[in-house]
Amino acid sequence: MTIRKATILGAGVMGSQIAALLVNNGVKVQLLDIAIDDANPNKLSKQGYDSIVNPKKSQLYDATFEGNLTYGNFTEDLNEMSDSDIFIEAVKEDLKIKQDLWKQVASVAKKEAILATNTSGIPINLIAQGLPEDAQQRFIGLHFFNPPRYMKLVEIIPADNTKPEIVEELKSFAEDVLGKGVVLANDVTAFVANRTGIHTLADIMYRAEKCGYSITETDALTGKVIGRPMGTYALRDLVGNDVGSFVIQGLLQDPGEADYFNVSKRILKLVENGYLGNKTKKGFYKKEKGKRLVINPETLNYSALEKPKLPILDDLGKKLEKNLAIIFEDQSKEGIFLWETLRNVFVYAARNVPLATDEFIDIDRAMVWGFNWRQGPFQLWDSMGFERVKKRILEEGYELPEWILERDNGFYTEDMHLENVTPISELITDHVWDRDSSSLNVVGEQLLFKIQTKYNVLDDELVR
Ligand SMILES: NC(=O)c1ccc[n+]([C@@H]2O[C@H](COP(=O)([O-])OP(=O)(O)OC[C@H]3O[C@@H](n4cnc5c(N)ncnc54)[C@H](O)[C@@H]3O)[C@@H](O)[C@H]2O)c1
What we know:
Layout (H helix, E strand, L loop, with lengths): L4 E5 L3 H12 L3 E6 L9 H11 L15 E5 H4 L8 E4 L5 H14 L5 E4 L6 H5 L4 H4 L2 E6 L8 E6 L5 H14 L3 E4 L8 H19 L3 H8 L9 H8 L1 H12 L12 H8 L12 E4 L2 E6 L4 E4 L6 H5 L4 H10 L3 H23 L4 H12 L5 H8 L1 H10 L6 H4 L22 E7 L3 E6 L2 E6 L8 H4 L1
Parallel strand pairs: 1-2, 1-4, 2-3, 4-5, 5-6, 7-8
Antiparallel strand pairs: 6-7, 9-10, 10-11, 12-13, 13-14
The structure holds nicotinamide-adenine-dinucleotide.
């Protein structure tokens, strides 16, 4: 089935952005939300619609796409047979609300329609419970990352009764129409990316507190130098301290996961006092008169940022591979802290194959596409030296699954890459030139000319 028409259920933060993403990719979208006002039943969906078509918010690639977007409400627009090819639900993270809405949707959806929920944490099987059998076969998790237009990752989570054809159809829609990178996840708490990401954030905060590292010291140690876009506390502020704590609570309540998670006292204190991060304009950091301040988590007072003075930071630079080699050898307190940070990521990622996903490469994809890491856990492990890392993990008393114990070589072979399309660099058969400003290469029977100047400016050498 070609997906031409979609109904998006919920016009909040995610629903409205998912609607915009689909409209931008040529899909007709009906955006629905709950009717909270009898006099104006489309109030909420109209707000979502307005935010999508508002030129200042640049949600649509082209203003004319607006013609493919309509809005309505659950009461008036879900009571007769629908011709939508897919329903994507992004309503409040509440099991009962989702279940009730899906029962209503199942009664009007056509018999081929895909029924997808964007829940970030409720088990897909639970939401599907109570739906007619044929609807359960088309029910599936479709987890976008915020902001969906820019984040490459989409997790697809089949439930126990989902038909394999539905998984395939949705995967090709997400990849080929929406241009996303798909990771197939099992129906486990927090799926793949959030469980791996939240695990390392929680682990770092817990150990940083024990080691007595300040917020800025921890962030300097756990951001760019280990290939992550920002430090641990800065990321918590961005995501929202309450949201992060909610996901950790979910994992702590999962008997299989509880042993792997520790709770940070700093986070609890900030959440209790309403310091939720960027959305409340105060978290581990805040901005005042254009200056960035950092919190003292004991007193909740802010002070000016100071550059952390940890000797290892003088040695760690922009080259990730070099940093990993230093971290492996460094016996200082910070060297050990960083080794343990990575070791814990490796051990946790290892146990999640096949628990959370069947292929180890999908954990790397999830972290690179969903958390913007430069390398995923298994790529980092390879970069640090597969054998020596494995040996040290075992010597330190940690368990590794059989599929890793049996492996002699690293995880990746030369022809494996995260992208689901072959990189053009691998298709080049001959080089004509490779200058600072441009290169000309042969790709099959075609020539590939590439501008390599800063900001793609046309300089003298380029046009010579
Ligand atoms: N915000 C994120 O970063 C993010 C990322 C991935 C997935 N999600 C998931 O997407 C879903 C929506 O999250 P959001 O951030 O867009 O939330 P939101 O609060 O912005 O939107 C929630 C939507 O639910 C609707 N709603 C509230 N009460 C309802 C009810 N009783 N019946 C029906 N609809 C009701 C609201 O009108 C609104 O449209 C959640 O399941 C969330 O876990 C969120």
